[in-house]
Design goal:
Blueprint lengths: L6 E4 L17 E4 L11 E2 L7 E5 L7 E10 L6 E4 L3 E2 L4 E5 L10 E10 L11 E4 L17 E2 L5 E5 L5 E9 L9 E5 L11 E5 L10 E10 L11 E5 L7 E4 L4 E3 L6 E5 L11 E9 L5 E9 L8 E5 L11 E3 L4 E3 L10 E9 L8 E5 L5 E5 L13 E8 L6 E10 L12 E5 L4 E3 L1 E2 L3 E3 L9 E4 L9 E9 L8 E5 L7 E5 L13 E10 L11 E3 L1 E3 L6 E13 L8 E5 L9 E3 L9 E11 L4 E4 L1
Parallel strand pairs: 11-17, 19-31
Antiparallel strand pairs: 1-2, 3-4, 4-8, 5-6, 5-7, 5-9, 9-10, 12-15, 13-14, 13-16, 16-17, 18-20, 20-23, 21-22, 21-30, 24-25, 25-28, 26-27, 26-29, 27-28, 30-31, 32-41, 33-39, 34-35, 34-39, 35-38, 36-37, 36-39, 37-38, 40-44, 42-43, 42-45, 45-46
Length: about 625
């Protein structure tokens, strides 16, 4: 039996009714062809208006020559959209783009096909493939986005992107509202007719109606795919134009202020009309300089808690851990540390963070400057204490001031970065001085020399006369012998054995005599004149000694006298008896006017002084 897809030859002859055979005909050739197999349903793209339709061909003994495609609506009356006729193809599979009447996104269609082999045999029609065209999604990678909307320019860059599709053109619409109705269109960038190289992203600079700082705007986009298909519009995204924040205001300390605090609070007041608040956190930069040479001494960045809104908000910082100093040496023989132009002040707190040599000093320990010169200083464990003796030379060190120096002038400034990290302008420099407050000590008479005084009587003898009165406060400033008495301690003269060159003392005013157990052979004694000295005269002269670490002069004083009541009846209550008022004067004594003080009353007095920097101190 003949088989499919084979060539055969044949010939024939005839015989007449008498039984005579004629000759054979010439050989004839024929081919046994099979119909192509019925193909499977086609595959159809669904994301454009000229979708690719693909299928297969199956005929083991033949090749594909053409396909016929039918596309209709997928609902009665199944209107034909394309009947392709023979479309030349080859191979085992094929793909053709739809070429019928216009299709519409969202409409249901169906497609089928049959194949034709090289011997013009047609297969049966495939089954129908149903499909609905879905317009491609719009750009899905856009900036600025609603989740990160801040723009710091009036001509923002709008970037259109698609993570899955390449495209060759884009449309952009910027509106005043996030919808297609209402509001106004500020920019409509349409297809520009210039196809660029296929890409996944494209940036465009805004070129529409002028935008305003602080304004909210809304934009959307769509793209033209590489096959010319237009995507859907993206959703609207919102962005906001963020203006640079203003320079800080209401700064404290402001220019010209004099402070006594070596770690003052630097306070800056900020506001941002954009009402910035968000994920980044606003930042305040503060810088402190030496006013004389503009060397940076300290800086700090503070993150302001968010949200803060448009209202004023205050940031306060205190400078500690100033700029470090190196190129430091020290000589253990003198305990002097050298650093050229160190700009430290006596009493200023410092700390080593690195130290080579200097045995006896410890890193990260607070010390205090003393005995400073322009290029040298010593260190003490506390303010005014004895200089520390380090037992090996210092060959290298890093020293960090922990506070500002007294009698020094500084300047500072601040600026504000909003939560979009948009940098504001620096403030003007504010200059202030850190001033050491003055002090006041009691004055004293000229020291009186002691003569030999016997322990048996507890009587102190002087040469010459002492001129002391009952109740006077005295101090021994030098003493040989006199066990039971101490140098530098306050004692009080009592009436017992009080004469021109003799007196006895008590530990308290009006108390019993102090018993000293060895003879006094030499020494000096001084009457103390100060607020705790009893008033003997009705118009006494009140004296004090003015001291200033910065060698500043006394600018003013104010003396106040308080009546504690009749002697011996003092219950702790007192009333103001006299107030000199503020006297602009460098004089360090004041006479109480006649008629103010009463005999047999106890009084307390105090003096408040100010130096030329208006730093005050009260001795009471």
């Amino acid at each position: 039996m003949p088989t499919a897809h084979a060539y055969y030859r044949w010939k024939a002859r005839t015989r007449d009714k008498e039984g005579v055979w004629g000759p054979y005909s010439a050989l004839q050739r024929f081919y046994t062809n099979a119909f192509p197999a019925t193909p499977s349903a086609p595959t159809v793209e669904t994301d454009n208006l000229t979708p690719a339709i693909a299928g297969n061909f199956s005929d083991p003994g033949d090749t594909l020559a053409a396909v016929q495609i039918e596309v209709t609506l997928n609902a009665s009356p199944y209107t034909s959209k394309w009947s392709s006729g023979d479309q030349t193809e080859s191979g085992k599979s094929w793909t053709r783009n739809y070429a019928g009447s216009a299709l519409v996104y969202g409409t249901a269609y169906r497609a089928r096909y049959r194949t034709k082999d090289s011997h013009s045999a047609y297969s049966a029609m495939s089954s129908w493939k149903s499909f609905t065209l879905v317009q491609p999604i719009g750009p899905n990678n856009k900036t600025p986005r609603t989740t990160n909307p801040r723009q710091s320019t009036l001509t923002p860059v709008l970037t259109v992107g698609h993570t899955a599709e390449q495209f060759r053109n884009e449309e952009i619409m910027v509106r005043s509202v996030a919808s297609d109705s209402g509001g106004s269109t500020l920019w409509s960038k349409t297809w520009d007719g210039v196809d660029y190289a296929n890409t996944n992203t494209k940036a465009r600079t805004y070129a529409g109606t002028a935008l305003a700082w602080g304004g909210y705007y809304h934009w959307k986009a769509r793209i033209e795919l590489t096959d010319g298909t237009a995507s859907l519009w993206s959703p609207y995204h919102t962005f906001r134009l963020n203006a640079a924040p203003a320079s800080p205001k209401a700064m404290t300390p402001t220019g010209g202020i004099i402070l006594s605090d070596t770690t003052p609070e630097l306070q800056s007041t900020f506001s941002d009309p954009d009402e910035d608040q968000g994920d980044f956190g606003e930042q305040v930069y503060t810088e402190l300089y030496d006013n004389a040479n503009s060397i940076l001494k300290w800086s700090q960045v503070n993150v302001v808690p968010v949200p803060v809104g448009p209202d004023d908000h205050v940031v306060s910082v205190s400078p500690t851990g100033m700029a470090s100093m190196t190129t430091i040496t020290g000589a253990n023989a003198t305990d002097i540390i050298t650093r050229v132009d160190h700009q430290l002040a006596d009493g200023q707190k410092v700390r080593f963070t690195a130290l080579t040599g200097g045995a006896g000093l410890v890193i990260n320990t607070d010390y205090f400057v003393r005995d400073r010169t322009a290029d040298t200083f010593k260190l003490a464990a506390t303010v005014g204490a004895t200089a520390i003796n380090f037992t090996t030379d210092i060959s290298a060190a890093t020293l960090v001031p922990q506070e500002l120096g007294l009698e020094h002038t500084y300047k500072w400034r601040a600026r504000y970065n909003d939560d979009f990290l948009l940098v504001g302008a620096w403030s003007a420099y504010q200059v202030f001085k850190v001033s050491a407050p003055p002090s006041v000590t009691e004055t004293s008479d000229v020291a009186v020399t002691l003569a030999t005084s016997t322990a048996a009587s507890d009587i102190v003898t002087t040469v010459p006369s002492h001129l002391y009165a009952d109740g006077n406060r005295v101090r021994f400033t030098a003493l040989t012998g006199g066990a039971g008495l101490s140098v530098g301690v306050d004692y009080y003269v009592i009436a017992t054995n009080l004469a021109a060159t003799t007196f006895q003392v008590s530990a308290t005013r009006g108390g019993t005599s102090v018993d000293f157990t060895t003879d006094i052979t030499a020494g000096t004694v001084t009457r103390m004149i100060g607020p705790s000295t009893p008033v003997i005269e009705s118009t006494p002269t009140l004296d004090w000694t003015f001291l200033s670490p910065g060698n500043k002069a006394q600018y003013s004083f104010q003396v106040r006298v308080f009546d504690k009541g009749p002697t011996g009846t003092n219950f702790g209550d007192e009333v103001l008896a006299y107030d000199s008022g503020v006297q602009i004067s460098a004089v360090t004594q004041h006479d109480v006017p006649v008629g103010i003080l009463l005999n047999t009353h106890d009084y307390r007095w105090e003096v408040t002084v100010k130096d030329t920097d208006q730093m005050a101190f009260t001795l009471t």
